[in-house]
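From the shared-data thread, chain only:
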Amino acid sequence: MTGDASGSGPTAPGRAGPATPGSFQRLIEDIYYERDFARGTQGTLLWFVEEVGELVRAIRRGERDNLEEEFGDVFAWLATLASIHGLDLEAVGRQKYADGCPRCHGTPCVCAH
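Structure, as tokens:
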């Protein structure tokens, strides 16, 4: 489903190679793909939305200690949804933002909004 990650950077815990969104997506696939695929898009989407809600609550309440856990959960469920749809999350992100802002192509963005 996902392609090989390349480049340098920190190593993902328990995995060889650089810690990239693509390597994280493969890690989540290794752990949960069969279960999540069987659950289907609708069930997995509900879990994702629930985790986004928990992240929003942690941000609004200023629960700094809980932010890492909630960001991790949201990232994992987003990776799962991408995998279920046969998408490489890192590749689609890079494709959309490789030239900077998709509207003005600036880095940083210079759009008037």
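The chain has three helices and no strands.
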